[in-house]
Amino acid sequence: MNNKLRFLVLFIPLVFLCWNCRALDNSERPFYRMTPREISRTISKIHKHTPNLSDRVIEVSAHFLGTPYHLGPLGEGSQGEFDQKPLISFSVVDCTTFVEETMALSLADNLAQATKILQRIRYKNGVISYQTRNHFPSVDWIPNNIAAGFIKDITSTVAGPDLEVASKWISKKKWYQEKKLSDIQGFPKMTPQEKKVLLDKLSEIGEEMPDEEASIPYLPIRDFADRLQNIPSGAIANLVRGDNPREPVLISHQVFIIQKEGETYVRHAAFDSVVKDVPALEYFARYENSKWPLLGINLDEVLSPSKIQSK
């Protein structure tokens, strides 16, 4: 065998092996392009080399960059009564599921445990049902996750004397009554008549739900530029809007605030787009002339509850 042929025989397998090593390197790949096993392996590595929780939130959330947006991608799984979309999925996200899945993967070093934690974040007391899902950020998601120990409100620390409070009466009864057949999801073989039965049942459930007053502290948007450097990287920002009678919510969007390279960014699942980073001042400038006024942002720090730490 001549020298050139011997070189090719040795070189080609090496190239193939190196290519495969690169293909299996998940450090730059988004979760939506990974298998569950790869995701579990990746978050295990992140936990090993990133002991600080806030740093893990930043690194884990970066693996969602580029993930397509889809409103309401998760449900109660195959046993769900009204919504049988999967309990966990990384193929698409909306603003809240992006935040929730980032939190779960940042708190658990394997996918199985992260799935269990996700249910405790998404549902009051971890009880999986449509009724116990934290649908409303102001009266469900934030207070229930504070009570569970997953987040802490840090708005007053950042805002200082500029702190203000927004209030709104939330009518879950009206929200349930306005549900449509298209809201009964994950039942491909169900007839419209069968969906109507479930829709009527949802309306009946809503009848039992009293109105709740939401009261949310916020950093006024007019003071954001002066305070943005005080916001810890990895904090959750909830966008607090004016009390609009036509809108059933007080908080319209959930994002992460990311500090990097001396700049502040909003990392979020953008409606009809993908998860992306946008310079914070540029992002909030978009709301300047909004017909639904943006009052400011409520801020939460992600925590690791003692119940998780002891497991």
Q: Mind explaining what this structure looks like?
A:
Strands 1, 2, 3, 4, 5, 6, 7 and 8 form an 8-stranded antiparallel beta sheet that branches. The protein is of the alpha+beta class and 311 residues long. A hairpin with a 2-residue loop joins strand 5 and strand 6. It is 39% helix and 18% strand. It has 12 helices and 8 strands.
Summarize the structure.
With about 300 residues, the protein is α+β, with helices and mostly antiparallel strands. It has helices at about 5-25, 35-50, 55-60, 95-105, 110-120, 135-145, 155-160, 170-175, 190-205, 225, 280-285, 305-310; strands at about 150-155, 165-170, 210-220, 235-240, 250-260, 265-270, 275-280, 295-300. The protein is globular.
| Shape summary | globular
Number of domains: 2
Q: What is the CA-CA span between the terminal residues?
A: 61 Å
CATH class of the largest domain: Mainly Beta
Main beta-sheet annotation: 8 strands, antiparallel
User: How many separate helices?
Assistant: 12
Given the helix and strand composition, which structural class is it?
A: alpha+beta
How many individual β-strands? 8
Order of helices and strands: HHHHHHEHEHHEHEEEEHEH
The whole-number mean of residue pLDDT values reads 91
What are the segments in which pLDDT stays under 50 over at least 5 consecutive residues?
4-25
